[in-house]
Design a protein that fits this description.
290 residues; alpha+beta; 7-stranded mixed sheet; 5-stranded antiparallel sheet; 14 strands; 23% helix; 30% strand; globular; disordered N terminus; binds copper (II) ion
Length: 290
C-alpha cells in the first residue's frame, strides 16, 4: 500500500517536472532533500560527481547518477568509494549538491564501482542509417536527413531531474526558436530527440511531450521525437557513446548530444549538460555546407 502510494507520488512528481521543465514562465520553488550515497566517480572537469545514492523517500528511488557541485574545493576532497552526506537542491531548471560531508572514507577494494569510460564516436565518423519511429508513428531513418545538419540528443519523457532530459529539451526548444528566425539556417537544420525509454515513450507520448516542450507551436517539421525497439535504441546509444541502465525501476543515464553534418558524419559531440544553445548555433553556422 505504502509502496504503491510512493510509486504514484513519484510518477506524479515526474510528470510535474516533465511538464514544468519546458515552460520557463513558472519557476518551481527550490526544494531540498537529504542525500546519502557512495561516490562512484569524481568528474572535476565537468563539475559533477557520480553518486550511487539511497532513495529519497517520497521523491526518488535509489540510483546512480551525476550531480553538479558548485563548490569547486569539494573536488579536491572527494574520492571514489567514499560515503557522503549532502543536500540535494532542486530548482526550477537545475539541481545540485551542497553541504557535502564525507562520512566514511573509501575502503581499498571499491574500484569495481567505477564505470568504464564511455567510448564516443570520433569526429568525422559516418553515422549508420539507424531506423526509428517518430511521434506520428512514422518510420524515419537517419540518412534521410543528409544534406541538412542534424542535431540529435537522447531523452526520456519521464526523467525527473531538471538538469537532465528536461534541460536538453529546453535547450532544443531555444535552438528551434532561434532557427525559426534564421531564414538561412532554418531550412538546412533538423533536430531529433531520441527516447531511451521505448517501453513507455510510444509515439503518442512523444507527441504530447514534444508539443509541450515547443510551447504548443507545432515543432515537428524541424524537431522530431523518436524511439524504436529497446534493441535498436541500445545500438544507437552505443554508437554515440551514451550509457544508460535501469536501477530500481528508474533509468539512469548520461547525456550526449551530437551534431551530424550534412555529409552524415559526426561533426561535434556535446557531453553532459554544460553546453549552451548559443554554442550549438555557432557550430551550426560554421558547418561546411550550412
Ligand atoms: Cu533524463
Amino acid at each position: 500500500m505504502r509502496a504503491q502510494r510512493l510509486t504514484t507520488w513519484l510518477t506524479v512528481l515526474s510528470v510535474v517536472f516533465a511538464l514544468a521543465s519546458c515552460q520557463t514562465e513558472k519557476p518551481l520553488p527550490e526544494q531540498r532533500f537529504d542525500l546519502q550515497g557512495k561516490v562512484v566517480a569524481v568528474n572535476k572537469g565537468e563539475g559533477t560527481v557520480t553518486l550511487a545514492h539511497k532513495a529519497i523517500p517520497g521523491y526518488m528511488a535509489a540510483m546512480t547518477m551525476d550531480y553538479p557541485i558548485k563548490d569547486k574545493w569539494v573536488f579536491d576532497i572527494l574520492k571514489p568509494g567514499q560515503t557522503i552526506h549532502a543536500t540535494l537542491v532542486v530548482a526550477s531548471d537545475h539541481a545540485w549538491l551542497e553541504g557535502i560531508v564525507v562520512s566514511e572514507e573509501a575502503k581499498p577494494q571499491t574500484s569495481s564501482l567505477a564505470p568504464a569510460d564511455s567510448v564516443h564516436p570520433s569526429l568525422g565518423a559516418e553515422v549508420p542509417d539507424f531506423t526509428l519511429t517518430n511521434q506520428d508513428g512514422k518510420r524515419i531513418h537517419l540518412h534521410q536527413y543528409r544534406g541538412k545538419a542534424l542535431l540529435l540528443t537522447f531523452i526520456y519523457t519521464r526523467c525527473p531531474l531538471p538538469n537532465y532530459c528536461p534541460l536538453m529539451s529546453k535547450n532544443f526548444a531555444q535552438i528551434l526558436t532561434q532557427l525559426r528566425s534564421d531564414s538561412k539556417l532554418s531550412p538546412s537544420t533538423h533536430l531529433l530527440s531520441i527516447s531511451i525509454d521505448p517501453e513507455y515513450d510510444k509515439p503518442a507520448v512523444l507527441r504530447t511531450y514534444g508539443l509541450n516542450c515547443a510551447g504548443n507551436s507545432l515543432p515537428f517539421d524541424h524537431w522530431e521525437f523518436a524511439s524504436s525497439t529497446p534493441e535498436q535504441i541500445r545500438k544507437v546509444a552505443e554508437f554515440f557513446g551514451l550509457k544508460y541502465w535501469t536501477e530500481n525501476g528508474q533509468i539512469v543515464h548520461e547525456l550526449v548530444t551530437a551534431l551530424i553534418g550534412p555529409d552524415g558524419k559526426v561533426a561535434k559531440l556535446y557531453r553532459g549538460s554544460d553546453w549552451q544553445p548559443t554554442d550549438v548555433l555557432a557550430d551550426l553556422r560554421s558547418l561546411p555546407g550550412s
